[in-house]
Design brief:
Layout: E1 10-14, H1 17-31, E2 39-43, H2 46-51, H3 55-67, E3 69-72, H4 80-86, H5 95-103, E4 106-111, E5 129-132, E6 142-146, E7 150-157, E8 163-171, E9 175-179, H6 184-201, E10 205-209, H7 217-240, E11 244-248, H8 249-258, E12 264-267, H9 269-283, E13 289-294, E14 300-304, H10 310-317, H11 327-344, H12 347-365, E15 368-369, H13 371-374, E16 383-384, H14 387-397
Parallel strand pairs: 1-2, 1-3, 3-14, 5-12, 10-11, 10-12, 15-16
Antiparallel strand pairs: 4-5, 4-13, 6-9, 7-8, 13-14
Helix pairs in contact: 1-10, 1-14, 3-5, 6-7, 11-12, 12-14
The structure holds NADP nicotinamide-adenine-dinucleotide phosphate and magnesium ion.
The site of NADP nicotinamide-adenine-dinucleotide phosphate (NAP) has 17 residues, from helix 10.
């Protein structure tokens, strides 16, 4: 069989532990036999990040900017335990944070749905995708304990030294205070990334804030989202039949639970943090959650939402063939290949990426699955396989 050609390489970012082990198997069994796979390879395994003083991470992000599409394995975010384990020169920053800062992206998380794994909310017919603004608000806030009576104010000092003040509260006793911020440009990037994603995935888009209470702060989010829609995306959305819907956050939450799903929910930072965990667990499993970083300039990075599955890796090192679920990693590859195909206008590659996803879904629907899904499957599974046999079953189907 002739292999499918690729025009432009994918930026391939390798990672750590169990996901690194599976990464190789996926390439060997599911990609290389079918595609003339072209990638520009970056090894972001912790050892190589340490050897290169993290320059490899920066280079990989620049490569994604250059080529437009990357696929990333899960990577260890260093902490003091990892510093000892890997004898690191220093505590490396999170590679995802470094890449996000360079690409200026918004993260979209979408569950992979299969009929056998029923969402906890039985009205949901299609997945809900969360688009989370990944800058500012409570995540970049300054906080202070107030020990006793006194006045707390916000002070804005302009470059010429003039000041504007607004009272926060008169304290009669002890308490707490917090100051948070966001930038118009960051909100605008977030809005653009959400509309670009909604158009690419052909999904309606919802956005919600608490602008009735937070008239200036959340009001600004609402205004900017609306401006971006009106000036840049209204016609494109109309042409694609995509609706933009704004509502209050309380109304959105009520509608999400009663609705049928099948839309992009653009969330402010905190809302996205909390609601993506709700959506992931209501939809089934972390191992079935995909993740893509979309930059406002139209650059894409695909990955699995889960981490390196550390405990499985230690068991694998002792010789066990673990039953780690490779579905989200395979979908990271298929997502990246499909985007590459779309940009390069290579329909054979697009077709392959769909076949690959269908092979994964069909195998699971046939009752053949890994241990994590077996617990959730209704009806009960026919076979529970280790990762290698599971990937072989997918290859057979493909
Ligand atoms: P994790 O790797 O996501 O795993 C947490 C648990 O979830 C696992 O122990 C396993 O549960 C289950 N799980 C996750 N993915 C699975 C899969 N594909 N198949 C089956 N079960 C799966 O999170 P973590 O243990 O908190 O973090 C491990 C490392 O990953 C850390 O060093 C962290 O820094 C890194 N991390 C990286 C990323 C990223 O690169 N995007 C994201 C998150 C974390 P059971 O043990 O019960 O089977
Ligand atoms: Mg969270």
């Amino acid at each position: 069989m002739a292999k499918i050609n690729m025009k432009t390489p994918l930026v391939e970012i390798d990672g750590d532990e169990m996901t690194r082990v599976l990464w190789e198997v996926i390439k060997e069994k599911l990609l290389i036999p079918f595609i003339d796979l072209k990638t520009e390879y970056y090894d972001l395994g912790l050892v190589n990040r340490d050897n290169t003083n993290d320059e490899i991470t920066v280079s990989s992000a620049r490569a994604i900017k250059k080529y437009g599409v990357g696929v990333k394995c899960a990577t260890i975010t260093a902490n003091s335990a990892r510093q000892k384990e890997y004898n690191l020169k220093y505590l490396h920053p999170s590679p995802n944070a470094t890449i996000r800062a360079i690409l200026d992206g918004t993260v979209f998380r979408k569950p992979i749905s299969v009929n056998r794994i029923k969402p906890s909310i039985n009205t949901w017919k299609a997945p809900i995708v969360i688009g989370r603004h990944a800058y500012g608000d409570v995540y970049k806030a300054s906080e202070m304990e107030i020990e006793g009576p006194g006045k707390v104010e916000l002070v804005y000092t302009k470059p010429d030294g003039t000041e504007r003040r607004v009272k926060v509260a008169d304290f009669e006793g002890s308490g707490i205070v917090q100051g948070m911020h966001n930038f118009d440009e960051s909100i605008r990037s977030f809005a653009r990334a959400c509309f670009i994603y909604a158009l690419a995935e052909k999904l309606p888009i919802w956005f919600a804030t608490k602008d009735t209470i937070s008239k200036i702060y959340d009001g600004r989010f609402k205004t900017i989202f609306n401006e971006v829609y009106e000036t840049e995306f209204k016609e494109k959305c109309a042409a694609a039949g995509i609706e933009y819907f704004y509502t209050l956050i309380d109304d959105a939450v009520a509608r999400v639970v009663k609705g049928e799903g099948g839309f992009l929910w653009a969330c402010k930072n905190y809302d996205g943090d909390v609601q993506s965990d709700m959506i992931a667990s209501a939809a089934g499993s972390l191992a079935m959650m995909t993740s893509v970083l979309v930059s406002p300039s139209g650059v894409f990075e695909y990955e699995a939402a889960h981490g390196t599955v550390q405990q499985h890796y230690y068991r694998w090192q002792k010789g066990e063939k673990t039953s780690t679920n490779p579905a989200a990693l395979i979908f990271a590859w298929s997502g990246a290949l499909a985007k590459r195909a779309e940009l390069d206008n290579t329909p054979d590659l697009l077709d392959f990426s769909k076949r690959l996803e269908n092979a994964v879904l069909n195998v699971i629907e046939d009752g053949i699955m890994t241990g994590d899904l077996a617990k959730l499957s209704d009806p009960k599974p026919e076979k529970i396989l280790n990762s290698w046999d599971f990937i072989d079953a997918i290859a057979g189907r493909l």
